[in-house]
Amino acid sequence: MGIPRIQEEIRSLLKERNAVLLVHYYQRGEVQDIADILGDSLALSMEAAKTDARVIVFAGVRFMAESASILSPDKTVLLPRIEAGCPLADMITVEQLETVRKNHPDAAVVAYVNSSAAIKAHSDICCTSANAVRVVNSLTDAKKVLMVPDGNLARYTAKFTDKEIIPWTGYCPVHHFVTVEEVREVKKRYPDAPFAAHPECDPAVLEMADYVGSTGGIIRYAGEINARKIIVGTESGIIHQLKKNNPEKQFIPVSEKLICHDMKYTSLEDIRDSLVEMKHMITVPDGVRIGANRALSRMLAVS
Ligand code: 13P
Ligand code: SF4
What we know:
Blueprint: H1 6-16, E1 19-24, H2 29-32, E2 37-39, H3 41-50, E3 55-59, H4 62-71, E4 76-78, H5 94-103, E5 108-112, H6 117-121, E6 125-127, H7 132-137, E7 144-148, H8 151-158, E8 164-167, H9 180-189, E9 195-197, H10 203-206, E10 211-212, H11 215-224, E11 229-233, H12 238-245, E12 250-253, H13 261-264, H14 268-277, H15 286-302
Parallel strand pairs: 1-2, 1-3, 3-4, 5-6, 5-7, 7-8, 9-10, 9-11, 11-12
The structure holds 1,3-dihydroxyacetonephosphate and iron/sulfur cluster.
């Protein structure tokens, strides 16, 4: 008998451990292909909150696994590569948040899920790129809203609300450095192709987009739009799924720089090893978890 293919090994380990494999669209193609649930940050946190499985294996980055553990503290949450982080999430500390909050005592605080558990615990509500506008507009008592840590998402959200939005200075180093010149150049080569971008891009780039949305939103848009070529302004991993869903369409990355190395760490071997050795377990201490759970659950309630 030959050595079982790694995909089969993973499938049988998932069954043995009563585990579910959650995978983000930015993961490597072969990892996306064995997902139980493939989705954007919002869909994956909804799934983590409601799954019956005993173990959640998160093929994504740390803040995603932390959110799963916060929402389902009785489950074992595994992050196959412990070094898979998010530089944007590290761009604000609790001390910085408390300082800026003192300057705006009447502002509600909305924490993008791409943040630490401690930041979530110090916020009023969380949001993702899929629901930021809805979350902000749900804060009926607030006239001012401090949005952390992503300044670009904050500025984008400000266009769809009457509230005063105070953006923090963080940014995603993958999306933020896409330039207007790059977009212009690709549009020149593909003049009929619509441009779909993630709200973590710079405002000037978003001004040039035909559609702005989360990874899940971009997947839906690409399926629905009557175009044979689509320019993609988000991390390259999404193209795997876009091509699978729409084999007749062509997807053109707007920039070669759109690669999140943290999202690319996780291999099939890492997933197998995480299930064999039950590593790396992600837990959030109760002192932080309770506040973070309140902010995440409040977000899920309005989503
Ligand atoms: P989504 O919320 O669209 O899944 O994006 C997550 C992310 O990390 C974007 O860089
Ligand atoms: Fe973080 Fe940007 Fe990577 Fe998303 S793409 S995980 S925001 S660094």
